[in-house]
Structure formats: structure tokens, C-alpha cells
Specification:
Number of domains of chain A: 2
Order of helices and strands of chain A: HHHHHEEEEHEEHHHH
Largest sheet of chain A: 4 strands, mixed
Number of domains of chain B: 3
Helix content of chain B: 40-55%
CATH architecture of the largest domain in chain A: Orthogonal Bundle
Number of strands of chain A: 6
Helix content of chain A: 40-55%
Number of helices of chain A: 10
CATH superfamily of the largest domain in chain A: Acyl-CoA dehydrogenase/oxidase, N-terminal domain
Order of helices and strands of chain B: HHHHHHEEEEEEEEHHHHHH
Distance between the termini of chain B: 39 Å
Largest sheet of chain B: 4 strands, mixed
Number of helices of chain B: 12
CATH topology of the largest domain in chain B: Butyryl-CoA Dehydrogenase, subunit A, domain 3
Largest interface: A-B, 56 and 55 residues
CATH class of the largest domain in chain A: Mainly Alpha
Shape of chain A: globular
Structural class of chain A: alpha+beta
Distance between the termini of chain A: 32 Å
CATH class of the largest domain in chain B: Mainly Alpha
CATH architecture of the largest domain in chain B: Up-down Bundle
Structural class of chain B: alpha+beta
Strand order of the largest sheet of chain B: 1-4-5-8
CATH superfamily of the largest domain in chain B: Butyryl-CoA Dehydrogenase, subunit A, domain 3
Shape of chain B: globular
Oligomer: heterodimer
């Protein structure tokens, strides 16, 4: 058993982090926030060139022949960077929808009663007839409601949607933990860094504990691909991202409540992701049902 | 990321499984929990069998991955716990192996491995719990002897131990971490009084040990005089590493039993309970993966798990308490019946967030050592 990252996996993670820092740093994030809601096509193609969408395709079909663990690592980075766009849907369309693998086609899909990025997408998978826009909670994820909808279990890629979304949540969880720790080291009140107060320090430690537990669950689910492992990973990752972002906001005090701070964007994105692939309840039921398996 | 066994690990697992299947049916029945001499004999007997089959030192000399397979397979097979051998195998033994002289290793290690001698731990004191370095038990040097006076608390297996790994203060003037010494104390030395302590679960799981002018040979000192704090830190990281790995396997089994019981008594139809058990299922799956992750990290860094152990310990101890709270929900009125095993387990789970470093101490370790936050009080 060698559960840790291989050299190649570390290199892939680091390269992805550098690529995203170059193409989607703090300024690009601000620009995306102020600009119209459409994916940055140049960035999308850069991701395509880097293999973000195609990495699991066989080499003969223009991919890198890599597996779910590698996909999870790059989606974790996307989550960290708050990268907008229907990334999971496009990744899962690679090989099936022309242009998805190279980042030339932006693909979205109908997930339950919602579609992300409908107006900006080139291709929509599923039936989006009668879709109505809603005023999205997350300024960087435009949403439509779909009256017909379709339950999660009727979708082809629900297991992979859930897994890759969990990887994004993991990225968020790690990032907000770093942001909170940075702030707690730098911000001084009562003559010392606020991180010297146990009440604040323990909030930060709790964020790290949830992140690292979720990391083990998400990576293991990527290795096994087992649907129960995936459902479990999702529960841990959702919790780590949402509670992490909330605690990060709390650690930031008044600054955390401002539009200017980055923290609310992480929380809002994390909330959007909790609705993907059938929601938390379904995942809880999947793991619960497994407890009875073998005793029937 | 690879969760599969290497050929060597696969072979170890298969051999261990076959051995367990052969030997477990022939074990004597478990002794009652309050019969300490019988428990001592039972636990030593099991260690003796492990020794004869070549598994005695798995905790010490095997790779972390092999150690994990050992814990996983013995738990799955329902083999006895480490029990009275805990301190010898997981604290005192590794300390002596790492810091003792050749003579000391030859004297103390083989009886631990063969299942002949029981060790207990004399670290905590009434005034030194989480703040272990505040310990006051005093040792004064008289020629080739230390004369020890003080008292120790939470000493498991003290009534039946042959030896005690003892921390004493040898230099009261030095900064508190630098005046401590590690001694091996024979428990039959005159001047020792053991008073069993009853836990809230009703049983006497540990004791208070009073030391009155107890004479310990200087030859029983491991490491240098006043270097006991460093010597001790070797053992503490062992405790937070894989020590609970077998228990995670056990908790996962309890969870399936809970689900079956809930289906039996109709509680399973309550979606809130079902979802709660589902969440716990996810939790213990994740904890098992976290053990594997930490073990892999320890394997590559060559050391024992460090702060990663704190992450696991913290999360696991709370999950265990939640598990038995859920069990109470499944049991309904029976959760008040001490004859239901889960009721007693619920009570003992209360110690998990306190023993081996409270949750608050673990949070502090994580905040300072992993997140680099300033030290606070």
C-alpha cells in the first residue's frame, strides 16, 4: 500500500496550481466578478492544452491515459482557485462531445432541476427545455431552473460528477483553512495576533482536521471508484468546504462579511456544489443502505 | 495513490489470516472484566502465542503498512486485544528499544515480546495531566540508587504489572522539561501502594500509585539523567499513530450491527436515524482511509506519525462518541440498561476525548505545529 501521491501526481498537482495562478490569479478573479457571466475562452483553451478535460482519455484519442486520482488532483486545484465554469460537465463530456477535450467547446448538463452556465455553454446535455434563469447566489455560477428536470440516478455520470465535485470541495476546504490561518497569524487585536487566542486557533485547527479527513476519503474514492466510497467522500468534502468557509468567514471578522473579501465567494461556490449529483440526503442514504448490505 | 497490497503485504496478510483461523477457535474463554489476575494471564497467553508464531514484534520492527495489516486482520478475526501488554508493546518497549543500552534491551525486551512481563505507565499525576511537564514526583540520588517519592494517576494495569515506566523529577531547579528522568521501576519494590480507581463506567480500569521513599537502581535509568522528557516523546508519538487503527475496524462492525438492530426494531424506518447512521458510515470509512494515509506517510518519511496522528486522534475520539450516541438512539429505552453492551461502551467512549491528550490539547498541537499559529495560553 502506497496511498500517498506519486512523484508524477505531485508534479501534475504543482503544474496545475502554477497554470491556474498564471491564468486565474486574484486579478482575473476580480475581473470575472465584475465582467459578464461567460467563461474565459482563452483560459478554457489553456486548460484544454494542459489536458484538464482530456486527461482520462486514452492516448490514442488525444488524452493522457490517466485515471480518476489524477482527475481528482486537478479538480482539487480548480476548487482552490475558485475557477468558474462548467468544468465537471465539460471534463465528463470529453471524448463524447466534439471540442470538449480540447477546451474549445464549453459543455454543461442538466443536474436535477438546475443547469449551470446554460447561456454561455456551447452544448447542453440533457433536456433544458423551458429553462428559466434564477438570480444565482454565487456571482460566478449562473443558474437556470429546469421544470422537467431529471433525478440524479437517471444520469449517466452521476458518480463521477459527485466525485469530481467532492474534489473541488476539498480544494475549497484546503484554501479557506490557509486563508484563515494566514489571517489569524497577521491580524492583531488586544496586542497580539488573533491566532494566539485559543477560541480562534481551535476554529482553524478544526478546519484542518475536516480537510485532511475529507482528503483521505476523496483520494480513496478516486482509487476505488466505489459508489459508496464516492458517496462517503462527498459527505466529508461538503462538510469540510461549507463549514470551513463559514469558519474562515468568522475568523476574518467584519472583513469576512464584505464583498471585497474573497471568503464569501468560497462559501457561495461550496453551497452551489452541495446541490450537485443529487444532494447530501441521497449520499447519506447510499452509505446507510450499504450498512445493511450483507445482513439481508 | 495505491491502496492495494504489495506482494510482501499480500503474503503477510494471507499467512496471518490462516494462522488466526487455526488458532482462535482453541483460545480459552475471555475472563470476566473485573478479574485482573485472570485478565493478565489471558493477555500474556495471547502475546505468548503471537511470539511463538513470529508476530511478537510487529508493532516495533515491521513497516507501518504491515503493522496496519496486523491490526486490521486481528480485529476482523475477533482476536484478543493487546490488553495488559499495551504499555510494554506500545510505550515502554519502543522507548527501551530506541533509547536503552544493549544490556537494558536484553533484560526488558524479550519478556515483553514473549508475554511474560506486564508494564504499566507512571506519567500523569494529580497536578500533571495535560501539562505533563509539571510532574512533581521527586527522585533524589543516593549513590547507585534513586529514592522516589510522589504519586501517579491513571495508571492502567498497575495491580498486575511487573514494571512501571516512571517519569520523575531529578532536578527541581532546571527548566521543567530538563529536570525529568525516565526510570524502570519494579512494582514489587517496598514503598509502593496501589489504589484502584473506579471509573464512571463502574469498573476499576486504572489506579493511583503512591510512592514513598521507593529505591530504584540507577542502572534502571533509560537515557541520561534529566533527559527523560526527550526519551518519553518517542513513546507518545507511537500512541497517536496506529494505536487506534484496530478500533476503527471494530467501530465499522458495530455500525453494521446498529443498522441491523435498527431494522429489527423498526427504527430504520425513521429517515433521520438512517441518515445519521449513513453519516457515521461515511465518517468511519474516512477514518480508515486517514489511517492508511498516515501510515503511508510514515512509511515514506521513515518515522512514526507526527501531527497527522493528532488529526486522526481528534476526529476518531469524537466519532466514537457519536457512534454510541447513535446506538442509544437505536436502543430506545434499552439505552438505560447497563446489561446492553452498547450502554457500557457509550460510557467508556467518554474517556476518548480526554485520554492520551485531550481534544483541546490536540487542537492546540494542530494549530501550532501544522498551521503555524502563535503559541497561546
Amino acid at each position: 500500500m502506497r496511498f500517498g501521491l506519486t512523484e508524477d501526481q505531485r508534479a501534475l498537482r504543482d503544474a496545475t496550481r502554477r497554470l491556474l495562478a498564471r491564468h486565474f490569479g486574484g486579478q482575473a478573479l476580480r475581473a470575472a466578478l465584475d465582467g459578464p457571466a461567460r467563461p474565459d475562452r482563452a483560459l478554457w483553451r489553456a486548460l484544454g492544452e494542459a489536458g484538464f478535460f482530456s486527461l482520462r482519455l486514452p492516448e490514442a484519442r488525444g488524452g493522457a491515459g490517466l485515471g480518476l486520482p489524477e482527475a481528482v488532483l486537478v479538480f482539487e486545484e480548480a476548487g482552490r482557485a475558485l475557477l468558474p465554469g462548467p468544468l465537471v460537465a465539460t471534463h465528463l463530456a470529453a471524448g463524447a462531445v466534439a471540442g470538449a477535450a480540447t477546451g474549445e467547446a464549453v459543455v454543461t448538463d442538466v443536474d436535477g432541476g438546475l443547469v449551470e452556465w446554460l447561456a454561455a455553454a456551447d452544448v447542453v446535455r440533457g433536456d433544458a427545455t423551458g429553462a428559466v434563469p434564477l438570480r444565482s447566489l454565487d456571482p460566478l455560477t449562473p443558474l437556470h431552473r429546469v421544470p422537467s428536470g431529471r433525478p440524479a440516478h437517471e444520469r449517466r455520470d452521476v458518480r463521477l460528477t459527485v466525485l469530481l465535485t467532492a474534489a473541488e470541495q476539498l480544494g475549497t476546504a484546503g484554501r479557506v483553512c490557509e486563508l484563515a490561518a494566514q489571517h489569524a497569524r497577521a491580524r492583531e487585536q488586544f496586542g497580539r495576533p488573533v491566532g494566539a487566542f485559543q477560541a480562534v486557533a481551535h476554529l482553524c485547527a478544526g478546519m484542518l482536521v475536516r480537510t485532511e479527513t475529507a482528503r483521505a476519503a476523496v483520494y480513496a474514492a478516486a482509487v476505488t471508484g466505489d459508489p459508496v466510497d464516492v458517496a462517503a467522500a462527498r459527505l466529508l468534502a461538503d462538510e469540510a468546504a461549507v463549514r470551513g468557509a463559514r469558519d474562515c468567514l468568522q475568523v476574518h471578522g467584519g472583513m469576512g462579511f464584505t464583498w471585497e473579501s474573497e471568503v464569501h465567494l468560497h462559501l457561495k461556490r461550496a453551497w452551489v456544489r452541495t446541490r450537485r449529483g443529487g444532494g447530501v440526503t441521497e449520499s447519506e442514504e447510499v452509505v446507510a443502505a450499504d450498512l445493511l448490505a450483507g445482513t439481508a | 495513490m495505491d491502496l492495494s497490497d504489495t506482494p510482501e503485504e499480500e503474503e503477510f496478510r494471507a499467512r496471518l489470516r490462516a494462522w488466526l483461523a487455526a488458532v482462535l477457535p482453541g483460545l480459552p474463554p475471555k475472563p470476566p472484566p473485573d478479574d485482573w489476575p485472570a485478565r493478565r494471564a489471558y493477555d500474556l497467553g495471547w502475546q505468548h502465542r503471537l511470539h511463538d508464531a513470529g508476530y511478537a514484534g510487529v508493532h516495533w520492527d515491521a513497516s507501518p503498512a504491515i503493522r496496519l495489516i496486523f491490526l486490521e486482520e486481528t480485529e476482523k478475526a475477533g482476536a484478543p486485544y493487546v490488553g495488559a501488554n499495551f504499555v510494554g508493546l506500545l510505550h515502554a518497549g519502543p522507548t527501551i528499544a530506541a533509547e536503552g543500552t544493549a544490556e537494558q534491551r536484553a533484560r526488558w525486551l524479550p519478556p515483553i515480546l514473549r508475554g511474560e512481563e506486564v508494564w504499566c505507565q507512571g506519567f500523569s499525576e494529580p497536578e500533571a495531566g495535560s501539562d505533563l511537564a509539571a510532574l512533581r514526583t521527586r527522585a533524589r540520588r543516593e549513590g547507585d540508587t534513586y529514592v522516589v517519592t510522589g504519586s501517579k494517576l491513571w495508571t492502567s494495569h498497575a495491580e498486575v504489572a511487573d514494571w512501571c515506566e516512571l517519569l520523575v523529577r531529578t532536578d527541581p531547579e532546571a527548566p521543567r522539561h530538563r529536570g525529568i528522568t525516565w526510570l524502570a521501576l519494579p512494582m514489587d519494590t517496598p514503598g509502593i501502594t496501589v489504589r484502584p480507581l473506579r471509573t464512571l463506567a463502574g469498573s476499576a480500569e486504572f489506579a493511583e500509585v503512591f510512592l514513598d521513599e521507593v529505591r530504584v537502581p540507577v542502572a534502571n535509568r533509560v537515557g541520561d539523567e534529566n533527559d527523560g522528557w526527550r526519551v518519553t516523546m518517542v513513546t507518545l508519538s507511537f500512541e497517536r499513530g496506529t494505536a487506534f487503527a484496530g478500533e476503527v475496524v471494530a467501530c465499522r462492525r458495530v455500525l453494521t450491527e446498529l443498522a441491523a438492530a435498527a431494522r429489527g426494531n423498526g427504527r430504520w424506518d425513521d429517515p433521520a436515524l438512517r441518515r445519521r447512521l449513513g453519516r457515521l458510515g461515511a465518517e468511519f470509512r474516512a477514518l480508515w482511509r486517514l489511517v492508511q494515509w498516515n501510515v503511508s506517510a510514515a512509511g515514506t518519511s521513515g518515522g512514526v506519525p507526527g501531527a497527522g496522528g493528532s488529526v486522526f486522534k481528534l476526529r476518531y475520539s469524537h466519532a466514537r462518541q457519536e457512534l454510541y450516541d447513535a446506538a442509544a438512539d437505536v436502543l430506545g429505552d434499552d439505552c438505560l440498561d447497563l446489561d446492553r453492551p452498547w450502554t457500557l461502551d457509550r460510557l467508556s467512549s467518554l474517556s476518548y476525548t480526554i485520554a492520551a491528550g485531550t481534544s483541546q490539547i490536540q487542537h492546540g498541537i494542530i494549530a501550532e505545529r501544522i498551521l503555524g499559529l502563535p503559541k497561546g495560553r
